[in-house]
Fold:
Amino acid sequence: MEEELINIKNTALSFILEAEDLKTLEEVKLQFLGRSGKLTLKIKDITKISAEKRKEVGMLANEVKNTIEDAIKQREVNLKHKTEKVLRQKIDVSNPGIKPPLGHLHLVTQAIEEISSIFEKIGFIRARYPEIEWDWYAFTALNFPQNHPARDDWETFFIKEKPSPEKGQMVLTPHTSSGQVREMERTVAKRKELARERSATGVDDGISIRMLNIAKCYRRQSDVSHTPMFHQFEGLVVGENISIVNLKGTLDYFVKSYFGEKRKSRIRPYHFQFTEPSFEVDVTCGVCLGKGCKLCKAGWLELGGAGMVHPNVFKATGIDPKKYTGFAFGWGVERVLMMKDGIEIDDLRLLYSNKLEFLEQF
Ligand code: PHE
Structure:
């Protein structure tokens, strides 16, 4: 009998502790102390036991009953307090608000916005041209001879479509230089449209282009520093008396604005079909600032290509190469991003992995 009473006490106490609301607590109370509750029935049984033991058992039963009642009261107070707190929280307008999780622009979009605003400050105008392009824009008009091995430099994706008789095969544009041709053709067409106005007014501002074309490019490549889809930003300036000095000045301006005042740029002779002369542009390493370190080896990091617009490109788009000159440059957005101070991404493919743990860091 004593043992059973102790058991009842322990079960009741654990049920009371587990009750998460007042209703459940009330049910537990009925289950043990109600008219046909477990403890109530046990107490009735006390009359059946021998007289000398009855007093002792009676005292124990009383103690069990008191403990259970106390525990219920205590739990009741706690639960009431908890609900009150929740209610109070609901209406306390002075409580600090809960911040909803906030997203942000992708790292590459942030870089594109920054690059655009740097060039817009010196008069470049953003343009955007097709990512699926004809051979004419991606190669032929850019002075790539048919079947010349230079076409392989760009590891192009070709599209299975009948080629156009004038513009050739369709490709996924492997570089933003196709935008140079589009921009020059557009400018020439617009000039033709305005020819009558020009002769009536006698005002002719000539051809003047300051284009910034930022777009997706595609090449058959995938490793730690290449993704099959990437972004380039292409600058094109055309006008009278545009020289290498203007190109170098623009490069320096960009390098200092994007990477910081301490970084320097240099140009090295190179070869591109569509520029003459052509250059490769380097920037001093952000860690050693040109002295040479483990990261860069010789102190310089390669930024990308640039050069003076080739006369054949002018001819292909209907611009007189004797009257106009121009420069162009085309660099990878992801590449300049990786070259920025304090950004260390050891695998470029992470940028397009959609891994939130990675993206949320920027
Ligand atoms: N289109 C070249 C590339 O993708 C870069 C370039 C652009 C070179 C403009 C010269 C002028 O590598």
Notes: Residues 51-91 form the longest helix (41 residues). The chain has a mean pLDDT of 91.
